[in-house]
């Protein structure tokens, strides 16, 4: 919807901008770097942190935003520190721009004991209550142990890190893990300890000390979030960042002077109103991996309006990827690599030009180490 007044002229008394779901999605798609594949480098492609929970998810996500991405270039960038892979929001592993490591990591660790307990999860809350240990004390202990274990340039895989933590952390913080069949530091506690310590992962998935730099004001994360997922509300930010609601609301209030209301949708950075009012058109096909930044929860109900489709696309485990055509959800996809051949199974939800789809399938195959791509339609 076009407006005659420029966003810079919209003061606190101006009527809220009115937009529809298509405009919101188009704005978020463009801000996610998916309208046109033109990111200058991997760090720019990772401006919105890309989850690396599923195999090669971050690699595939960045390749959907930048031309010429290869596994070799990705791994070299990670090892050189030109791209950071680390536990950040929600304690989950993401690929992100180096300059944002402290913002999405240390800056968002709660200082209030109750809010920190909520951030670390119920298991840590229970261990802390049972043993009379404050959540901040537990986090500090494991963080210090992590720094000590990785001192002098050491690099440890997850099992090696757990072995070292067992020598340094009190038993009360190491419950029995059924899947590992061993005692180790509670999962959310050791993950957030790497956040507090400033740890990253290398291309071989080994933990090492990093240099996240100065920790910025945490409210800056609200502004970043709204650039990718606005317009939104404090609860959306709390869920995305893994924060207790009161913590998220305080940070939101600190950023309030830079925000404007969008009718029925929540808040957006005032400087982004023009971009939301006239988002650019998207071009081409993208094969987005499960966990892609654009597939995170703020977009799900808009992207897949049908509840049954939403359930199939966003599963608790083993979700398919999403096929976008000109910014619209047009299919679901999965890949299996057998030897040098990658078989991509696509379920069409709309028309998909075969030539463009073949090109994207070859891109995914190459990134997964295959020399041949075969398309199968479900």
Q: Largest sheet, described in full?
A: 5 strands, mixed
Q: Give the CA-based shape.
A: globular
Write out the strand line-up for the largest beta sheet, numbering strands in chain order: 10-11-12-13-14
Unreliable residue stretches: 1-13
Q: Assign a percent range to the helix content.
A: 25-40%
Description:
The chain is α+β, with helices and mostly antiparallel strands. Among the domains are: 106-209; 285-377, no CATH class. It is 40% helix and 16% strand. The protein has a five-stranded mixed beta sheet, with helices on one face. Strands 1-3-2 form a three-stranded antiparallel beta sheet. Strand 4 (176-177) and strand 5 form a beta hairpin. The chain is globular.
Keywords for this structure?
single chain; 378 residues; alpha+beta; 5-stranded mixed β-sheet; 3-stranded antiparallel β-sheet; 17 helices
Quick take:
The protein is of the alpha+beta class and 378 residues long. The protein has helices spanning 21-31, 42-45, 57-63, 71-80, 101-104, 113-120, 122-131, 135-149, 158-166, 187-197, 220-229, 234-241, 245-254, 273-277, 297-303, 307-313, 354-367, and strands at residues 50-51, 84-87, 93-96, 176-177, 182-183, 199-201, 207-209, 259-262, 266-269, 285-288, 321-325, 328-338, 341-348, 372-377.
């Amino acid at each position: 919807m076009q407006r005659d007044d420029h966003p810079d002229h919209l003061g606190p008394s101006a009527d809220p901008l009115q937009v529809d779901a298509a405009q919101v999605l188009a704005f978020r798609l463009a801000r996610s770097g998916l309208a046109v594949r033109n990111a200058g480098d991997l760090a720019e492609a990772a401006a919105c942190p890309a989850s690396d929970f599923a195999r090669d998810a971050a690699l595939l996500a960045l390749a959907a935003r930048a031309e010429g991405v290869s596994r070799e270039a990705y791994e070299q960038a990670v090892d050189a520190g030109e791209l950071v892979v680390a536990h950040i929001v929600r304690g989950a592993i993401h690929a992100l721009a180096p300059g944002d490591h402290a913002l999405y990591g240390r800056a968002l660790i709660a200082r209030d004991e109750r809010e920190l307990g909520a951030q670390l999860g119920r298991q840590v809350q229970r261990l802390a209550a049972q043993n009379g240990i404050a959540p901040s004390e537990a986090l500090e202990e494991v963080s210090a142990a992590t720094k000590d274990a990785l001192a002098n340039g050491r690099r440890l895989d997850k099992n090696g890190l757990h072995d070292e933590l067992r020598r340094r952390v009190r038993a009360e913080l190491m419950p029995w893990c059924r899947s590992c069949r061993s005692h180790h530091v509670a999962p959310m506690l050791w993950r957030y300890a790497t956040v507090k310590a400033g740890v990253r992962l290398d291309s071989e998935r080994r933990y090492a000390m990093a240099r996240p730099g100065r920790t910025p004001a945490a409210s800056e994360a609200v502004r970043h979030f709204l650039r990718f997922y606005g317009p939104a509300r404090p609860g959306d930010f709390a869920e995305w960042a893994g924060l207790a609601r009161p913590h998220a609301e305080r940070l939101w209030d600190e950023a309030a002077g830079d925000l404007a209301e969008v009718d029925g949708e929540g808040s957006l950075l005032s400087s982004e109103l023009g971009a939301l009012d006239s988002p650019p058109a998207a071009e081409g096909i993208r094969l987005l991996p499960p966990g892609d930044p654009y597939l995170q929860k703020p977009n799900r109900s808009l992207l897949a309006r049908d509840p049954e489709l939403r359930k199939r696309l966003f599963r608790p485990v083993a979700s398919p990827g999403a096929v976008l055509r000109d910014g619209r959800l047009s299919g679901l996809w999965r890949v299996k690599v057998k030897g040098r051949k990658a078989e991509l199974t696509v379920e069409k939800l709309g028309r998909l030009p075969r030539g463009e789809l073949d090109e994207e399938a070859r891109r995914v195959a190459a990134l997964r180490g295959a020399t041949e791509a075969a398309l199968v339609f479900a």
